[in-house]
């Protein structure tokens, strides 16, 4: 993932400077400096991955003989994005749907309504990159789980489509899907319209709606070191 150098310019020299001058600096100035440091670190580049270790569901899960276990959807939000190739017992960091599942999906519950600025999809690392094709990404408030016999495949279209992949292309390593206007919802679902969905990780960068008012006050930094309101 390409990161702009936003935060680093804001942080340049600041921690050591502020500790050096702290004894003589006035309290209002210190508070302002502290506020600026705190807010600079919350630009779009520094948004948290809200999907990390959240509850995750899938239409099916593959029992994979190379590793003698299921490759569960939770492996796509475990924060592990690299692993040895080829697959072996230490390689338990990708989600793999069952081959017989015609339109497999994985769904992440962010836990609360969020404003999503960016989704990153990291493909399977060791092989088979061309299987990640014909994909659709949806973000909304309709819960998509695998509870109650067969899951919520029929409800998937209840959440708006926010990104669609051409049927002929595939994600070689990873894809970053940015949203200039944040997509608002609690559930993030990736489905492919063909069998065998395998992803290493799905990352959802944004902030929770409950903190949106506060977020708007934050100041954003960019690589020229200047600050501008969001
Ligand atoms: C499960 O995954 C393994 C490894 O990709 C594959 O060889 C096997 O055919 C898959 N089985 C099913 C039932 O999808
Ligand atoms: C999800 O709910 C929030 C309010 O809680 C709303 O602002 C947002 O538009 C909803 N998202 C969709 C896709 O309907
Ligand atoms: C999901 O699908 C089931 C079965 O069709 C339906 O009863 C339920 O109301 C749906 N939920 C939503 C939020 O659309
Ligand atoms: C992925 O790799 C294929 C085969 O090398 C190539 O044709 C295609 O342009 C690549 N796509 C992207 C998005 O890099
Ligand atoms: C940084 O922000 C300033 C002020 O908005 C803008 O003029 C400049 O183009 C921005 N630079 C980058 C690299 O985004």
UniProtKB/TrEMBL annotation:
One of its GO terms (molecular function) is fucose binding. GO terms for biological process: regulation of cellular defense response; regulation of complement activation, lectin pathway. The keyword Zinc-finger does not apply. It comes from the Eukaryota. Residues 1-43 form the signal peptide. The keyword Disulfide bond applies. Residues 47-211 form the Fucolectin tachylectin-4 pentraxin-1 domain. Keywords: Calcium, Disulfide bond, Lectin, Metal-binding, Signal. SUPFAM superfamilies: Galactose-binding domain-like. PANTHER family: F5_8 TYPE C DOMAIN-CONTAINING PROTEIN, FTP DOMAIN-CONTAINING PROTEIN. Homotrimer. Acts as a defensive agent. Recognizes blood group fucosylated oligosaccharides including A, B, H and Lewis B-type antigens. Does not recognize Lewis A antigen and has low affinity for monovalent haptens. Belongs to the fucolectin family. This is Fucolectin tachylectin-4 pentraxin-1 domain-containing protein.
């Amino acid at each position: 993932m390409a990161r702009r150098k936003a935060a680093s310019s804001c942080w340049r020299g600041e921690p050591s400077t502020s500790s050096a001058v702290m004894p003589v600096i006035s309290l209002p100035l210190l508070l302002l400096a502290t506020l600026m440091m705190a807010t600079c670190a919350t630009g779009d580049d520094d948004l948290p991955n809200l999907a990390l270790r959240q509850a995750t569901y899938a239409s099916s899960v593959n029992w994979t003989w190379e590793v003698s276990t299921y490759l569960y959807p939770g492996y796509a939000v475990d924060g592990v994005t690299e692993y040895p190739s080829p697959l072996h017992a230490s390689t338990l960091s990708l989600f793999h749907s069952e081959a017989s599942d015609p339109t497999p999906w994985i769904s992440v519950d962010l836990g609360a309504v969020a404003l999503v600025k960016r989704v990153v999809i990291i493909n399977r690392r060791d092989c088979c990159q061309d299987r990640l094709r014909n994909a659709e990404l949806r973000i909304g408030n309709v819960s998509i789980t695998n509870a109650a016999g067969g899951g919520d495949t029929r409800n998937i279209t209840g959440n708006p489509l926010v990104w669609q992949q051409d049927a002929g292309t595939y994600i070689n390593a990873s894809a970053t899907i940015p949203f200039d206007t944040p997509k608002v919802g609690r559930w993030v679902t990736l489905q492919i319209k063909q069998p065998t969905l395998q992803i290493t990780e799905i990352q959802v960068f944004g902030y929770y709606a409950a903190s949106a008012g506060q977020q708007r006050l934050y100041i954003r930094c960019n690589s020229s070191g200047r600050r501008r309101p969001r």
